[in-house]
Design goal:
Length: about 200
């Protein structure tokens, strides 16, 4: 088995590498950025990509789309600190085959990897119930946010201003401003301060 770990924190990559060395026989590759991940994916064609959503730049959801554009059969397991249903739902809708939080047990991460490699879907048990309630309950506006809008929310939660967000995502200031207007309409808020508050709450885990 060949596993590609994509996380911008070397200590996380090393921890996952050591963990996998105990439980599975696998060649483990590491990438700290989306660019590195794409290069390794193209040359090594791993059986599974273990991907963090909170990458610098465009973010994990954008990388997920690029990986699937390279190979629609790519098996990607999200391994993230975010446990809010909106992020889980968006990742799965975007093509991820599984979702596990960084608070999950080692056994559960290994189980998720094995199932996704086998072609199955897997959502961490503690998150699956919340996701089901979210999906079956009243419609929530933030389910309609695009991958780019979620990335903008992530950066707003980090205290970035619109100019910094534009620079980091490689888009124009006007595009970011228009996106924020669209997000406010979808979330039914009028003030930018309310949008920032919601962004912080979504990333409070």
């Amino acid at each position: 088995m060949k596993i590609l770990i994509v996380d911008d924190h070397s200590v996380v990559r090393e921890g996952v590498r050591r963990l996998l060395g105990v439980f599975v026989e696998a060649a483990v590759l590491e990438a700290g950025t989306g660019k590195e991940a794409l290069t390794l994916f193209r040359t090594e064609r791993p059986d599974i990509v273990v991907l963090d959503l909170n990458l610098p730049g465009a973010g994990g959801l954008d990388l997920l789309k690029r990986l699937l554009a390279e190979d629609p059969r790519a098996r990607v397991l999200i391994f993230s600190m975010h446990t809010t249903p909106v992020y889980i739902a968006r990742a799965l809708q975007s093509g991820a085959k599984g979702y596990v939080s960084k608070g999950a047990s080692a056994d559960e991460l290994v189980e998720a990897i094995r199932k996704v490699v086998a072609g199955e879907r897997y959502v961490e048990r503690d998150l699956a119930a919340e996701l089901a309630l979210h999906t079956l309950g009243p419609s929530e506006p933030n389910k309609a946010l695009s991958a780019r809008e979620l990335d903008i929310m992530r950066l707003l939660a980090q205290g970035k201003d619109l100019t910094s967000i534009a620079d980091q995502l490689g888009i124009s200031y006007k595009t970011v401003a228009n996106s924020c207007t669209g997000i406010k309409q979808k979330l039914m808020v009028e003030r930018s301060s309310d949008l920032i508050r919601i962004a912080v709450e979504l990333h409070a885990e």
